[in-house]
Structure formats: structure tokens, C-alpha cells
Amino acid sequence: MLTLEAIRALAAEFGFPRVAVTDASPTEPPPTDAHPQALSLRADPRDALPEARSVLICAMPYRPYERRPGQASVDAYYIASNRAHESARGLAEAIAATGAKAVMTSALRVKPLAARAGLGRMGRNGLVAVDALGTRVSLQTIVTDLPLTGQHLPAALDPRCQACHLCESACPTRALRGDGSLDIARCVRAQPESAPLPESMRPLTGESLLGCDLCQRLCPRNRDLSEADAPADLADALRLERLLSGDYKDLIPWLGKNNARKLRLMSRAALAAANQGRSDLLPLLDALADMPAPVGEHAAWAARRLRENPPSSDAQTRL
Ligand code: SF4
Ligand code: SF4
Asked: Does residue 35 carry a pLDDT above 80?
């Protein structure tokens, strides 16, 4: 039978330097005002594997991308998460190849499981920090019938948050309540992609096409992490000229099909064009103004803003 040490060695080969284990008992259900995606998650690991006896939480680290003026960006989390998802599937298959039952699942509440397993501590920004890796990790869950000895720690706020409220006070929409929970309706990151963003939020997306990570960028729990340059192929696929022309498919290998959706990327590219003062893109924005919402509405807003606020006086908000 595989030991936890053997699993950790195997996990390292798949790109997961940290693995923690907890028992297969259910977590608390999510709060009733959680994001619809969070509400769809299951609390009981046995829903993924009826014979479940333990749950492995695996952390794959990533470095945030440096943001450069004039360039659109995506939060590096989405790219890491796409990679980690595939690696976790491979790790589960490798464990199963030894005769154990093991299932990789994205259907469970991974953050409470990670904190319970002692992999990291939940912070005021609602994210789990894993020692020196900070919150810049993609967490993946594997449920197994192996009787591994794990931890079952009570939920508690990271002690490093006691005297720190940086994330809470920096959040541009006051989405963080201060106790580690999030008012999801206010979070820029969690807005539905099918509807136009509220006007007050549109300048807050800055140059980002996907995600807002301000509450991670400022967090002292991430102080050991340096930024990396986005790969050249990714940077090219993120060019606003391409995205506003509907040329988005080169982003699928980076982001996965779920995140690289044409209308989502085009609508956010329109906001990024306005937020970066890209008046040179006005002809492309004008050509999109008749498209259905959110693309048409964002493009019309962006064109209006660029015409009303010439780039030199256009204050940009970076997230
Ligand atoms: S910014 Fe401060 S309060 Fe917020 S999660 Fe990080 S350490 Fe905790
Ligand atoms: S992701 Fe952005 S909007 Fe959401 S809580 Fe963090 S700082 Fe606030």
C-alpha cells in the first residue's frame, strides 16, 4: 500500500511540491450567499468516491505575471490552474495504477479541505496561504480509499492576518468582509461573464482580461514571490488588436476552453482598451458596438470613454 511519503514523492514528479491529507468527512456547506459555482460544490468526498477514506490536497505553485503598460493581461492563476488540473488527473491515475482507488475531482470545496488538512492557513482575503508559496498556488483534490493518517484542524484565521487589514482596505469594491469571507456580488473577479459589468466596476478591471488579484498582490503572505514575464506566445495571444477582432483561439491551450470564451474575452478586451487609453483601437471598438451584450455594451462604453477622456488625462486603475 502506498504511504503518504511515497505519494508525496510521486506528486513532486507531477509538479506538486506540497501535499496534505485529511479524512473523508464532509466539510461545512458554503454560505448561502456564495458564488453560484461555489454553491454547486459538494461537501462530502464520498460523493466523488463512495469508498473514500482520505482526501489529498495538492498544491502547485505559480508566479504572478509582471504587468506592463499597454499590454493586456490575465491572472497567472488561470494558466497554472489549467496545468494543475491535468497534472492532478495524471497523479490520480498513477496512484490508481498501484491498486488503490483514487479520483481527481473539482467538485469539492477545496479551500476548507486544505485548511483542515493543515496545508495552509485561511486568510482575511479568503485564500489559503501555503508556507513560502503564499496564496499563489492552484489547489487540487484527489479522493482515495487509502487509509492515510491526516489532520483535521479547526477552521481559524491565519495569525499573520491578526494585525493586518491590507487586503480588506485595498479591495476597490469593499468585497472583503474582514473575517475571511467575501461578499461575492461585489467582487470584480466573480462577476457573471454573460452580463455587462456594472459601470462602476469597468475602470477597475484595468488591463486584466481575466481575474482581479489585488488582494493577493498586496498580501504580505506572498512577499517571498517574485513576478515573472508572461511567455511571448501568451503575450501575443493577448494583444487587444487580435481579441477585438475575435481572434482568441490561441488562448485556449493556456486558459482551457472554459475560460477562453470568445464573448467573454472580447468584452473584457473592450474594457482593457479603454482603461489603457488605446485610442488607436477606436475603429475596432466602433465595429463591435452593435454586437449583443456584453460585447456591444462594453465596446460602446469603451469608445465613449476614449473619446471623452483623451489618454493623456485618462487615469488608469491597475488591478
Ligand atoms: S493582506 Fe494581510 S489581512 Fe489580508 S490575507 Fe494577507 S496577511 Fe491577511
Ligand atoms: S479579487 Fe479584487 S474585487 Fe475581489 S476581493 Fe480581491 S481585491 Fe476585491
From this structure: no
Other Cβ atoms less than 10 A from the Cβ of 48: the count is: 19
Same domain, 289 and 169: no
Q: Identify the domain boundary among 198, 229, 260.
A: 229
Do residues 261 and 202 both lie within one domain? no
From atom 4 of ligand 1, which residue's Cα is the shortest distance away?
Answer: 167
In total, how many domains does the chain have?
Answer: 2
Q: Which domain holds residue 276?
A: 231-307
How many angstroms is it from 165 CA to the middle of ligand 1? Answer: 6
Instruction: Give me the numbers of helices (H) and strands (E) for the chain, helices first please.
Output: 12, 8
Q: Which ligand 1 atom sits closest to the C-alpha of 125? A: 5
| Same domain assignment for residues 213 and 75 | yes
Tell me the C-alpha distance between 159 and 176, whole Å. Answer: 17
Residue minimizing CA distance to atom 6 of ligand 1:
219
Residues with CB under 6 A from ligand 1: 123-125, 158, 160-161, 164-167, 218-221
pTM of the model: 0.87
What type of residue is 67? R
Say yes or no to pLDDT of 319 above 70: no
